[in-house]
Amino acid sequence: xxxxxxxFIVLLAFIFLGFPIFMxxxxxxxxxxxxxxxxxxxTIIKMFGSINSLSLLAIPFFVTAGNIIMHAQITDKLVDxxxxxxxxxxxxxxxxxxxTSMIFGGIQGSGCADAxxxxxxxxxxxxKQGYDTDYAVAVTAGSSMLSPIIPPSIAMxxxxxxxxxxxxxMFMGGLIPGIVLGILQMGVVYAEYRIRGYDIPRTRFSIGxxxxxxxxxxxxxxxxxxxLSGICFxxxxxxxxxxxxxxxxxxxxxxxxxxxxxxxxPDILIESSITTSVVYMTIAGAGVLSxxxxxxxxxxxxxxxAINVLRNPALVVLFLCIVFIILGMFLDPTVIIxxxxxxxxxxxxxxxxxxxxxxxxxIIIMQLxxxxxxxxxxxxxxxxxxHLPMEKVVKPLLPYIATVVFVVAIxxxxxxxxxxxxxxxxx
Length: 427
Hints:
By secondary structure, this protein is mainly α. It has 21 helices and no strands.
């Protein structure tokens, strides 16, 4: 355990020195592999082995689809529809932020893209209307959690890759918990609005305006429907659904609203390549470091402690939640999934959990790291948009973190919240 502790100290040192996550993982892994007498060839083998999978092809497809969406101004239509649907509620644009994230999550599956695209639009708008900046950033960071939960989800693609569980079932298993989480977050928006004593003008609700906005936004609203229905009814695989998202995004941008230009394509491809490269390098670095931890039996020790010492399923879930929340404060969710997905599956199988049920709940908890300092990527992006120090958002973000923990607790007590939909669709 001393060596494992030293590994994490070195990793955190590189992170706090400002090294990118993937470089911190890779350098730490190389140091301890070489120190253990291994050749650098092993590093190369583990790096390429970690990303050499057709399943991971879905990631660049959805990343590209997300960039097309932003260039084609689909998010503008989503915000307009959400404003007409829930903008009249106390909390106004806060509710719009959450609902837009729910719909946006059904298109591209990335919390980073959600925080950047929706935060870039709604944080300045909320500030202009009179909302406090920390309130606007907390709503944006909290609601960006919805994108990795509501299908399609890049996090679930990674989990399915490491555990070989059916990705379609994982996608459908995350839909209801994602919707429940969105509703709870809207409850937090309402409560915070009242507690802070806001009296900000809101959109007047009108059935006519709602239908009119829905009609004008139909092209954008059809996108998540096409993707999810294609997966549900077996017309496309989850990987092919990423291609479908790209094709429809291009069709929408060039034909429907005509905001996309040929000259935008190089920028879209460059942005997508950069984002995909960072994700793949993070997976590769995590593969190297994970191999070091495997040699030290770290994952096995966590697994043995859960199975042989705790023994009680509720205590095991609580233990894993605590471990992932603590690790999430320092590691990106991608890294945690790479390191622990197989162990999570093994632990769940021992205690008789449905693999989809247990996997979805653990993915939700693993994503908490993205909205917790100091490495929270969703939080970092949201704070960057608002030019607000991260520490000023921690307190208003706590209720959103609580909603995530609550959804996991409810999902543990009522497994049907996760398993009902995939069982209904796939039998």
